[in-house]
UniProtKB/TrEMBL annotation:
InterPro entries: AB_hydrolase_1, AB_hydrolase_fold, AB_hydrolase_sf, PcaD/CatD. NCBIfam families: protocat_pcaD. Residues 24-252 form the AB hydrolase-1 domain. It comes from the Bacteria. This is 3-oxoadipate enol-lactonase.
Length: 265
């Protein structure tokens, strides 16, 4: 287990460097911890150096001061990358993690050689939708929204056939720190990265699960439309969390994307 303190917030992470291989940094969705990337990093194997971590308020990382902004999550990630002495990264950000990836690019463009923006957007949800979710979770806990979130995360096929994984993922969601969950909902509510997305000049791949119930393919395509030269791909038979539902398909896209990037530092 690896932990470090970034400006008073303990972050849980797993760094797996492979000599001579570019770093790919994975940034999580709301209500998840870094185990969601296990199957993807297993497929990528020794072809890439990897860094996964738990956002503040999630997994084994500290809660820190609430509420959060996306910029707070960017501070944590920039601090973690610097602490590990990594000078060149490709980012794979899922959902709110995609906003953090866009924010890190805006802050440190020299650090970021490429972005994979997975099931995410420049703006996710509305003031009303986040306020409603925050009110429900404050009153009745994460359990109260868990079934609806599972519907957005996974396809009906996953619900019908992969019942053990579904139960485990639901456990992961409801066991997140409720204050960290709400604080990240606030960050999402306030984030509009339309201008940031339009400024991205690094190679970018936008990816959507074809049955994503949270950031549907049309929304992800609208993100891709903002980013000059970006590519857009749809993963079949996937909801909002393709790294769990279709890890081999996402890993194949990541592999091809990394192979096309210019050599890093
Ligand atoms: O929890 C959801 O509904 C899906 C989601 C939205 C932002 C995020 O990170 O996950």
């Amino acid at each position: 287990m690896q932990f470090t303190d970034i400006d008073g917030v303990t972050l849980h992470f797993a760094h797996r460097p492979v000599a001579g291989r570019r770093h790919l940094v994975f940034i999580n969705a709301l209500g998840t911890d870094f185990r969601i990337w296990n199957a993807v990093t297993e497929v990528l194997g020794d072809d890439v150096s990897t860094l996964v971590y738990d956002k503040r308020g999630h997994g084994l990382s500290d809660l820190g001061t609430t509420p959060y902004s996306i910029e707070d999550h960017v501070d944590d990630l920039a601090g973690l990358i610097d602490r590990l002495g990594i000078e060149d990264v490709a980012l794979c950000g899922l959902s709110v993690g995609g906003l953090v990836a866009q924010g890190l690019y805006a802050r440190r463009p020299e650090l970021v050689s490429g972005l994979v923006l997975c099931d995410t957007a420049h703006k996710i949800g509305t003031q009303e939708s986040w306020n409603a979710r925050i009110a429900t979770v404050k009153k009745d806990g994460i359990e109260a929204i868990a079934d609806a979130v599972m519907k957005a995360w996974f396809t009906p096929g996953f619900h019908a056939q992969r019942t053990n994984e579904l139960a485990g993922c639901r456990n992961m969601l409801v066991r997140q720190n409720v204050d960290g969950y709400i604080a990240t909902c606030v960050a999402l509510r306030e984030a509009d990265y339309t201008g940031v997305a339009a400024s991205i000049a690094a190679p970018t791949l936008c990816v959507a699960g074809d049955q994503d119930g949270s950031t549907p393919p049309d929304l992800v395509r609208s993100l891709a439309d903002l980013i000059a030269g970006s590519r857009f791909e749809v993963i079949a038979d996937a909801g909002h969390i393709p790294c769990i539902e279709r890890p081999e398909a996402l890993a194949a896209l990541l592999h091809a994307f990394l192979a096309d990037l210019p050599a890093g530092n």
